[in-house]
Design brief:
Helix 9 (210-220) crosses helix 12 (284-293). It is built from 15 helices and 11 strands. Helix 6 links the parallel strand 3 and strand 4 (146-152). Helix content is 45%, strand content 11%.
Length: 383
């Protein structure tokens, strides 16, 4: 069977890239031919999307200071993302790039797909998707094609669709052969707003095990990480930095990051034009190795929490409501790890010596991995 994957645009997002790769590998492992429907936005629309993204994230910064940093040119962006693009080019099978809504229809016709799988990474969150209709497969008009949503995500337990968009997307969602959601709250949202029953499943990254990711690390031959306390915090905050320093001192650990020295939220034109190497993202395998090498992690990222679990690392998740708190609570509840979720206002009182029973977590992960993989693969079988 030839399958097309629909997900968020492949860009400077480690978790988004790796979940795409993981879903692809599971499908290939089952004997299918797989391509990701590769899409982006043209340069004339890129500034609008870039500034919207930055404005949303800057609202989360201390003091709510709105900042619109310099947007790199296409050539500069290629340099900044060269390591991420190298992983994508090597490891993810993709169609030619699509830049407009009609492009999805053309690709569906030319690609001769037997099925489409939509998911994951907040692909059903309206404010994160220029091509929301495509994420509900509006372009897949062939009646015989299978329509699957695996670990689709609204990212939040609050309904963000307008009434008109709800009606449009509900009609499309009801045509799916199988719908599953990454967050348990998403199951109820589908029932209430789309009138469909959905399953709750694991993020695609959790369908692979740690050894699958270690193989990528070994193949890339990336050097050992610079420390053993991995700080993967996307929205910097002095309170989190202070918490990290306290843990490092108390535990005798060395904190380190895997992000550009100059992140996109605050980099200037001068940074990009004259210090572009400081803006370059480390490679995906370097990011994965950080979890492998760490003794402990501190994250405010969903996939940061996911890979801490996969690699069995003591971890702490800083709640991030703006990015979607439901993602964290659903994931941690699945494995009985709710006590790893921290409020940034209460970091001073955290007892950092709580142990995790990895035997119980791993047993649950193995059970759910098998269940979810079976649900996905069974949904693709012909009746």
């Amino acid at each position: 069977m030839k399958i097309g994957i629909l997900t968020q645009a492949l860009q400077s997002n480690y978790g988004g890239i790796v979940q795409n790769y993981a879903l692809q590998q599971v499908l290939i492992g089952a004997g299918h031919k797989v391509e990701t429907i590769d899409w982006g936005i043209r340069k004339d629309l890129r500034r609008y999307a870039y500034e919207c993204k930055i404005s949303i994230r800057s609202l989360l910064m201390p003091g709510n200071q709105l900042v619109t940093p310099y947007m790199p040119t296409s050539k500069e962006q290629d340099v900044i993302c060269r390591n991420l693009n190298a992983f994508i080019d090597t490891n993810i099978h993709r169609t030619p790039k699509i830049y407009s809504a009609p492009g999805f229809k053309r690709q569906a016709n030319s690609g001769r797909f037997d099925a489409f799988v939509v998911g994951s990474d907040q692909c059903w969150r309206p404010k994160y998707n220029r091509f929301l209709d495509a994420m509900f497969l509006d372009f897949a008009t062939e009646e015989k094609v299978k329509r699957i949503a695996y670990a689709a995500s609204f990212g939040t337990d609050k309904w963000e669709f307008s009434p008109a968009r709800t009606a449009e997307c509900a009609q499309l969602a009801q045509r799916f052969d199988f719908v599953s959601l990454r967050e348990d709250s998403g199951v109820e949202l589908c029932r209430e707003h789309f009138g469909i029953e959905a399953s709750h499943v694991l993020d695609p990254t959790m369908l692979l095990d740690a050894e699958d990711y270690v193989a990528l690390i070994r193949k890339a031959d990336v050097p050992r990480s610079r420390g053993n306390l991995f700080n993967y915090v996307l929205d910097p905050d002095e309170r989190i930095d202070a918490f990290t320093r306290r843990i490092a001192k108390d535990k005798g650990l060395e904190a380190f990051r895997v992000l550009p020295l100059k992140q996109q939220e605050n980099r200037s034109k001068n940074d990009v034009r004259h210090h572009i190497e400081d803006c370059v993202y480390p490679g995906v395998e370097t990011w994965l190795r950080a979890f492998m090498d760490a003794d402990m992690t501190i994250v405010d990222s969903f996939h940061g929490a996911v890979f801490s679990i996969i690699f069995n690392k003591d971890f702490w998740v800083i709640g991030n409501a703006g990015r979607g708190q439901a993602r964290f609570t659903s994931l941690l509840r699945e494995f009985g790890l709710e006590d790893r979720l921290l409020d940034v206002e209460q970091l001073d009182s955290v007892q950092v010596d709580k142990a995790i029973c990895w035997e119980a977590v791993n047993a649950r992960l193995e059970q759910r991995r098998n269940e979810c993989k079976n649900l996905l693969l069974e949904s693709l079988k012909s009746e």
